[in-house]
Amino acid sequence: MFQDMELFDLLKKHEEGRVTLVDVRSPKEFAEFHIPGSINIPLLNNEEREEVGTIYTQVGPKEAKKKGLELFSVKLPEFIEQFQSLEKERVVYCSRGGMRSKTAATVVDLMGIKVERLDGGIRSYRKWVMKQLETQNFTKRMYVLNGYTGSGKTVLLRRLKKAGYPVLDLEKMANHRGSIFGQIGLLPNKQKAFDSLLVQGLIHYENSPFLLMEGESKRIGKATLPATLHEKKENSMQLFIHLPLERRVEIILQEYHPEEYPEEIKEAFQKIRKHVHTPVAKEIAKNLTEEKFSSAVALLLKYYYDPMYEKTLKRYAENAQKHIYAADLDEAFARIIRFIGDHEN
């Protein structure tokens, strides 16, 4: 069994593709929170787990275990077959490293399939994640992509990551775009899932001399950044991207697809409407109703988001600002690479 002290090495092997982590909890538990990159081969489905839990509460643990084994025995051949299909080293886990992972390990071992267990299950992993975040000093240099809403910061970060640069994609980790409209078309991750993905990213880039990230607020959707990371981000070099307004409108429309979510867009606008000058707010609402999204976005940028950005700009020291002016994302991408190259070489 893997102890807490060995968990980092296990996750490193998993990150390198040398280990397959198998979550044997129910699909519902897996969906709510799991170790990033692990696969789900459940002993019991959602309904079966609920049935066993009811027996445990109303009758007792002995009867619950008996019912659980009865339900599991029916699907045993398929369960074994799924484990046999895994070619890498296998490590199983459940909630606490108890009955379910022991049962899974015992059964597959009897079939001659080598498998190990994660001691303490997902709970020990969660404690380890919290410890990593609490003790993380975030001493690496950071370059923070900042700028007006719609400047393509997320698009640029993902292009940089694809090009091999060390990027912490916080919006992807949170599964939220970081604005009042940020969860439209998405299912935001909760704090546990966000923390896990963040630690995974830190493990992946442990040997990188610097990190790239976006100028997010402390809270992104349902997730909150660790205080030390937020402080480091605020005190790092800010790369402010400047694109023409019409280009920013195009980027927002491509990212949010308002034509697919017109009602959600209108509902989100109502949450900020009181902060927009009344005549402008009426025009934006009219444009949204008529699905004139380009006009609505342009007005939102000019009268709501851009003024907020101007206030944000004043938070940073002048020597921590680099303004990157570009006609489009290709030019901005090239200028960012050039800036980083000049400072890292």
TrEMBL record:
Superkingdom assignment: Bacteria
Biological process per Gene Ontology, one example term: tRNA wobble uridine modification
Domain Rhodanese: 15-131
Keyword Manganese assigned: no
UniProt-recorded Gene Ontology molecular function terms: tRNA 2-selenouridine synthase activity
Presence of the UniProt keyword Aminoacyl-tRNA synthetase in the record: no
Keywords, comma-separated and alphabetical: Selenium
One Pfam family recorded for the sequence: Rhodanese
Residue ranges the record marks as coiled coil: none
Protein name: tRNA 2-selenouridine(34) synthase MnmH
Organism: Tetragenococcus halophilus
